[in-house]
Amino acid sequence: MILYVLRRLIAGLVLAVLVTMITFLLLSTSFDDIAGSTLGSSATPARIEEQKAQLGLDRPVLVQYLDWLFHAVRGDFGLSYFTSEPVRSAIAARLGVTLSVVLAALLLTAVVGVTLGVLAATRGGVVDRIAQGASLFGHLVPNLLIAIGLVWLLALRLHWFPATGYTPLGEDPTRWAASIAIPVLALTAAGAASLTSQVRGAMIDELRKDYVRTLRTRGIRPRSILLRHALRNAAGPALTVLSLEFVQMFGGALVIEQVFALPGFGSYAFNASLQGDVPIIMGITLFAVLLVVCVNLLVDLANGWLNPKARIR
Amino acid sequence: MSTAPSNATPARDQGDRHDPAEAAASRRSPLRRLLRDPQAVISAGILLVIVALGLLTPLITDHGPNQASLDAINADAGSHGYLLGGDKSGRDIFARLLSSVNTSVVAALIGTGIALAIGVAFGLIGGYYDRRLRAVTEWVFSLVMTFPGLLLLIVLLPVTNGDYRVTMMIFGVLLSPGVYRLVRNLVLSVRSELYVDAARVSGLPDRRILSRHILYTVRGPVVIATAFLAGASIGVQSGLAFLGVGPSTVPSFGAMIADGFTNFYEEPLQFLWPSLTLGVITASLVLLGNSLRDVLEGGRPEPSRITAPAPRPTTGLTTGAGSSGLLTVEDLALAYPTSSGELKEVVSGVTLSLEAGETLGLVGESGSGKTQTAFAILGVLPAEAVVTRGSVRLDGRELLGLSERELCGVRGRAVTYVPQEPMSNLDPSSTVGSQLVEGIRTTTPMSRREAGERALALLSRVGISDPRRVFASYPHQISGGMAQRVLIAGAVASRPLLLIADEPTTALDVTVQAEILDLLRDLRKELNMALLLVTHDFGVVADSCDRVAVMQQGEIVETGDVLDLFSAPRHPYTRTLLDSLLDENSARTDQPGVADESWQKEAR
Amino acid sequence: MTAPLLDLSGLRVTYPGRGFRARPHEVLHGVSLLAREGETLGIVGESGSGKTTLGRAVLGLVTPSGGHVRFRGRDITHASRKERRALARDIQVVFQDPYSSLNPALAVGDILSEPLTTQGATTREARDRIAELLDQVGLPKDAARRLPREFSGGQRQRVAIARALASEPSLIVCDEPVSALDLTTRARVLDLFVDIQRRTSVAYLFISHDLAVIRHVSHRVSVMRGGEIVETGDAGQVTSLPRHPYTQMLLLAAPVPDPVAQRERRQERHRLLARERAEPGAVERVEQGTDPGQFGS
Predict the structure, then answer these.
(1) Most buried of A30, B308, B467, C108, CB within 10 angstroms?
(2) What is the pLDDT of residues B550-577, one digit of tens each?
(3) Quick one: which of C275, C271, C210 has its CA closest to C239?
């Protein structure tokens, strides 16, 4: 078990090295522009070469990458080209915002998706049609439009929540909750839509299986069959969908943060990329990969717990 | 690998309600069925109109999408050649809207095209060919899949310079693992189909097998996926444009929405038009995709409630001559709704009775309704089944019309059940022990510990030599014969009056079958339990039954003592069945034909 | 002297273990048997005995890890795809499941023309031959235009037999061809098999778990158990008066459809079991296997 986790983590590290290397190689094709953009539009070619040398961008690409990797392993991700802020603390400061939005959305997605999915699968009739309609709506309307629609309704019309801005949790928990409420709802809408149809389908499949009938003939109550047996067997595939949701929400947070002017990871990455701030881009890439690796590992462990056949020995 | 001697026929008893009219209807080409689906026609029509408008932009509009004019700034809709008015920079909103359609179409074509090209090609190769090659492709694709796509697109901004076509190429690559997995799984499942083996035996080259047998299966799901991929591409492209990625000269819904968003309070309509068009396009794609799925893969599954079948008013009213038997089934009829809404009867007026301690064999071929009759007695018919008339009385109590809750008090106590397929009838993710304990504690209140001991005692009673190990095992860790013993243990735990066994040995090897039949016979004597044995096998009937009821097409054609039935069958159908039996004397006696000739040749 | 039609000697088949670094396991441990022109060789065994793998090895669907498969004296153990294509004219197959052995998307006519056109027949020739084949297996003429799902299990199996007969083979591997069929259908399809053999003198390698079926169609019978052949002989002798204790056990375990005879047989089986319990080793117990792979693998 511990061996398995270790193996997975090592594989994750290898993956992180590969992804960051590919990113770096791709970025290296535009180092000229990057050096130029740090200087402003009036820079002469000679000045750009000088700047490249100063940033270390004139060395062989692989040497630069290994240099970055060597420092990264020791926790040093360098300084931003533009603000000279250490990348590590900059990311850490912004991650809290993004994670609180994404994790809250993920939790809400799980609750809403599973509840609606199970209800739709077992009740039928009106409940099923409402659940399916809601799920279809989440699929139909692009995330961006849902977000803007929610701002219009909840902030501008009903004045329940502020339209933009962020209050840190430490400052005022209630206002923190209010400030992330609309972004979380917007992310949940799309996520819950696909989870609902997934859970519905998986539950229907499960309830048609032979063992459900046999459990009924043993006099076991429907509620126990539903929750102890069918849902547990349907949870595996739903969990996989949820982990993909996490990855997607992480990307989706980019747009959402822009709409709501949240000082998060996404908008930070976006601005850094527009400017070509290589140390920040690399730090963000590494961080995102590690995060995804950890989430996938957790999902696989949970899957093993749910499904004895998939359990590792 | 070796095949279990699974006689799959009885399992089709329930599912295969063969309807020639339905089969003929589904023979019609998918395209024609699609054209009869209003949702598909409307959504496809909307998409076609929008794309056509986009293509005709230069002919329809008076202004270029980037042509700014001072007097058009925030112009009202309809004013001097500006159909939808002008935006805050004085550009024609209508012209920009139509040009944005073109941008979206190109984005969708690039993203979807690349995702399909990579995904389908590698899916076919990875699915059909070597395992080692598959391991490599698998690894690469799972690597691509783990990365948050939008973030990567942003991170690579310095490389792409925000050109949406390059961005969409990368996005296509990011979408390809999904297509790859879809295709690979389909290919793997087709590959194990026997008709592919038959094609290989026929000497069909791989290329022909791929194009003839495999691409056909892959085609439908890929078409469906295409609609969703196009929607995703358009969504991402407009999301990025909304963020301000890319040159401002490329008209795009995202850029227009962003412009409109900043101008929201003054001119809300400027925000509405691009949002509406974008919404209509993606919604049409999703709806079209759903229609395609319904047509190509059959409709979405209906919900399945756990509930006792709804009886018709007449049910249970036949209080006629109450015979003293343990189980009395009178004039039982049940039906399923067909696709046309009518009811199709699968059991028509079955009457049978069972005394305490007696074994009745219910014999018939597939589709005769014998399993449906058994399920009706247990009250575990699928929710869509309708009991149209009749009565089922167990120990004097009418069972039809009881609610699921009331039935829970009867099932597992007075009447229990042993199924055909032992493996699929155990919950795969609970241990054998916990499933037994749950059943025992449902019927007899006792502590978990006591129930555990009782379960262990039952396991050793049904002939399992190492009960503790089996108790702690998951179903996939034990053999089929063992699983059937576990199910029997669960069924007799509450010392029921009646055990209904539905083809209990059909899925088992013949030596295991003999032992299971012995076990059932011993338990029946020991507990003085009645046994309703549903089977298609006259050997099993001869071995275990006191009386026999023969079913044909939903009706019982003959009932009688087992000795009489074998020696003097009365109904012609029974005689046909008995004549089809292969007995000891049916051994082949003629000599191989050609062998004689070849020997003669040798002799010469 | 003419070489036998099919000659297996010391045939071994090993499957790679599932998952990474899993041990491969051998399912056939050196099987040898002979089949002559025009005869039916029955192979009987329980699940896990390797009888299906044996058939697949003859068909070239699995690659043997040792031993030889000879067809009319020619070694075809490791025949190339091209050689296989030529062999397809001589060796054909009928599978167990009539539902998965026919491509649901192809009309019966297209299914039947596949082996013909592969062998180089023109469309016209193929059409005539298909009409002939449908007639031979007792299906109506218009069947060629219909899809497999419009037929019952027994009719589908007739289509599969027609496909196997298309290229006039000299050997058909029949893998449990009647196990999924109803009682009355089963008898008719078995009679069709025998009838076709009398007319075309094709040989069958007839694989089944059911001794009664094997007895009905076979001239000679081999009994398999755990990847080995335990007994081979004349069909009448092996299926009625078996010599090997395992075959005796198999025979006694199969219930006869006659209550009186079955009671005797059951008592005989109990006597055999009691004798074996008294002196273990005569027959190892077949059941009570704790190997998870034993069932339905």
Answers:
(1) C108
(2) 999 999 999 999 999 999 999 999 999 9
(3) C210
Is the Cβ of B220 closer than 8 Å to some Cβ of chain C? no
**Test the A interface: residue of B12, B46, B154 with most A CBs within 10 Å:** B154
Sign of CA dihedral C282, C286, C289, C294: positive
> How many Å apart are CA B198 and CA C172, to the nearest integer?
12
- Measured CA to CA in angstroms, residue B24 lies from B20, B291, C201 at distances of 6, 21, 38
β-strands B397-398, B415-418 pairing: unpaired
Q: Residue A145 and residue B279: Cβ atoms within 8 Å?
A: yes
Beta-carbon separation of B146 and A293 below 8 A: yes
Query: Is B151 in contact with A266 (Cβ distance < 8 A)?
Result: yes
> Which chains, if any, share at least 3 CB pairs under 8 A with chain B?
A, C
Q: In chain C, which residue's Cα lies nearest the Cα of B483?
A: C295
CB C172 within 8 A of CB C207: no
Q: At residue B336, what are phi and psi to the nearest 5 degrees?
A: -120, 145
Interface of B with C in 421-440 (CB under 8 A): 423
Looking at A18-27, A28-37, B88-97, B489-498, which range is the least confident one?
A28-37
Q: Do B424 and A27 make contact, defined as CB atoms within 8 angstroms? A: no
Asked whether the CA dihedral C124, C127, C131, C136 is positive or negative, the reply is: positive
Nearest neighbour of A145 by CB, restricted to B158, B275, B476: B275
Using CB atoms, pick whichever of B147, B243, B409 lies closest to residue A292. B147
Would you state the pLDDT for residue A27?
82
C-alpha distances (whole Å) from C61 to each of A299, B329, B505, C4 are 38, 51, 31, 22
Q: Are B478 and B428 a contacting pair, CB within 8 Å?
A: no
Summarised one tens digit per residue, pLDDT across range C263-284 is 999 999 999 888 878 766 544 4
Contacts of C130 (CB under 8 A, 6+ apart): C109, C112, C113, C116, C144, C162, C166
Q: Please tell me the distance from the alpha carbon of residue B489 to that of residue B461, in angstroms, as a whole number.
A: 8
**What are the pLDDT digits (tens) for A13-64?**
888 888 888 888 888 877 777 777 777 666 777 777 777 777 777 788 888 8
Given a cut of 90, is residue C161 above it in pLDDT? yes
The whole-angstrom distance between B367's CA and the closest CA on chain C is 10
| Cβ distance of A30 and B375 shorter than 8 Å | no
Q: In Å, how far is B39's CA from the nearest CA of chain C?
A: 26
DSSP letter for each residue of B272-302? HHHHHHHHHHHHHHHHHHHHHHHHHH-SPPP
Instruction: For residue C238, give the amino acid letter.
Output: V
A56 to each of A277, A278, B86, B157, how far by Cα in Å?
A: 13, 11, 49, 21
| Residue of chain B minimizing CA distance to A304 | B429
Percent of chain A past pLDDT 70, that is, above it, reads 96
- What is the ipTM score, two decimals? 0.85
* Residue range A81-113, pLDDT digits in tens: 778 888 888 888 888 888 888 889 999 999 999
Tell which residue, B469, B462, B436, B463, has the closest CA to residue B450: B436
Beta bridge partners of B397: B394
The Cα–Cα gap between B92 and B88 comes to: 10
| Maximum Cα interatomic distance, chain A, rounded to a whole number of Å | 85
Listing DSSP states for B213-253 in one string gives IIHHHHHHHHHHHHHHHHHHHHHHHHHHHHHT-S-TTS--H
B155: nearest CB among A30, A207, A285: A285
Share of chain B above pLDDT 90, in %: 30
Chain B: closest CA distance from residue A140 (Å): 4
Mean predicted confidence (pLDDT) in B268-274 = 80
What is the rounded distance in angstroms from the CA atom of residue A20 to the CA atom of residue A287? 10
